User: Which sequence fits this backbone?
DNA sequence: GTCGAGCAGATTGTCGACAATATTTTCACC
DNA sequence: GGTGAAAATATTGTCGACAATCTGCTCGAC
């Protein structure tokens, strides 16, 4: 009842290997998603055979997947003692936010000299959309627009290294993005800050763009810092969203 | 003569597993070193069986090692086509330097509030040592002191995330550190810049420390930019060193 | 002579089995 | 009844073997 029925081939996820995508890659994507989306709790043990069964691949594949995830910082692995989902403390979350901020400031600077008119136009549209959401009081939609905005700036920077590093940092934070603060009144200020950033990018002024982004992100970090100290007092307070 | 003699155990590198260090870890360290130290050329193919023989481990271990190195950005891996040492272009080197600069600026900021008196003292000593090297014209020794200084600042920041990211970026650059520029007169200015950074850290002034580091690193990036464009003209010019 | 089909050779992807290590349980002894 | 050794269990570390895939080459048709 609990043993894998037959050792007969492996039609589980495979069937047809989706063009160049190996089964291990598939497993990597799936497990990564499970961790990032929070379906696997922090500190939860990751037993190789269990994962192999779940993901429909051999233990070897699971092993390389775990190695990748460890290097990525999503998993910790002690020799002979197995792997666990990495626990990200609030202090670490602050660190990650700071590092991400430093890199996004660089991205903004680069975007100021490299963004195409189409990209700037997209930013303007997003800005308008965000403004509308703000007026309508739809903070969740505002947060989405916010994410799109930052993604566009990063894309416009054409800075492969910064993009890669930011993506990695973001993955470690997703758990926190689901329960981060929206301090009352923060949205309005956030919107103004974003407007300044786009202005600087459109004006092709790298220094101004970097400074504006830095200013914006320092506020985000401050907000996060306040949140964590508040969190220490009354646990599980209001449902929150940080506005980047 | 060329086949591994007997399937008898594996005393190759092992003998006694150096306390918690698995054979795969050993292999990882060794291969990483070989890439970083330049013993393996960029774009060189990394055939799994060959590496297995060289490193004295099985192919499975090699495979996880390659997965880690790929995630780390030292190796590229195409499905069914194997792995190669990643080729870092000069444009990418500039990117990496910029990203590293952004993170080191953050580290300097943190160091300003977290450095211990002992750490500041060490920086002062290093500064004095660098000054002496400069007077003696020993640029190689100066470069060493320079590296120690930056390492100390990063350590003093106690910023685990920034430290980790910087280490990763550094590894990708080592090949370039062996052939980067020392523009005439750069050392003297570099020394002044370092002094300002340490001053700010000692004064526990985060803004000043970050600004000083940013100023310093922008010069490094400029130098690197000039070098790469010059490199395009007359290849393999003077032996060079970049002063961070 | 050039082009494509088809056939080696080499290399990677995947798996199950065995050995080594850590963890838990059992049980004899004080 | 508590304590420690020693077996039993669970899990990871490692390997070789087989299948799938890619690469380069040969060879026949046009």
Assistant:
């Amino acid at each position: 009842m609990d043993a894998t029925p037959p050792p007969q081939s492996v039609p589980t996820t495979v069937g047809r290997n989706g063009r160049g995508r190996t089964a291990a890659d598939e497993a990597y994507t799936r497990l990564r998603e499970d961790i990032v989306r929070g379906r696997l709790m922090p500190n939860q043990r990751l037993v190789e055979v269990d994962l192999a069964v779940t993901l429909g691949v051999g233990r070897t594949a699971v092993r390389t997947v775990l190695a990748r995830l460890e290097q990525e910082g999503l998993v910790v692995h002690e020799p002979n003692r197995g792997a666990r989902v990495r626990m990200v403390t609030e202090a670490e979350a602050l660190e990650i936010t700071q590092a991400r901020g430093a890199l996004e400031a660089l991205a903004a600077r680069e975007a100021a000299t490299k963004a195409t008119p189409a990209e700037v136009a997209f930013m303007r549209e997003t800005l308008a959309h965000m403004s509308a959401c703000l007026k309508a009081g739809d903070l969740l939609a505002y947060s989405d627009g916010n994410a799109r905005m930052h993604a566009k700036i990063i894309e416009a920077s054409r800075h492969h290294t910064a993009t890669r590093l930011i993506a990695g940092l973001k993955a470690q934070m997703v758990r926190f993005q689901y329960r981060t603060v929206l301090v009352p009144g923060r949205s309005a200020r956030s919107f103004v800050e974003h407007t300044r950033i786009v202005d600087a990018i459109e004006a092709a002024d790298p220094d101004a763009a970097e400074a504006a982004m830095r200013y914006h992100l320092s506020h985000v970090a401050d907000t996060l810092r306040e949140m964590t100290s508040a969190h220490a007092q009354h646990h599980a307070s209001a449902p929150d969203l940080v506005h980047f």
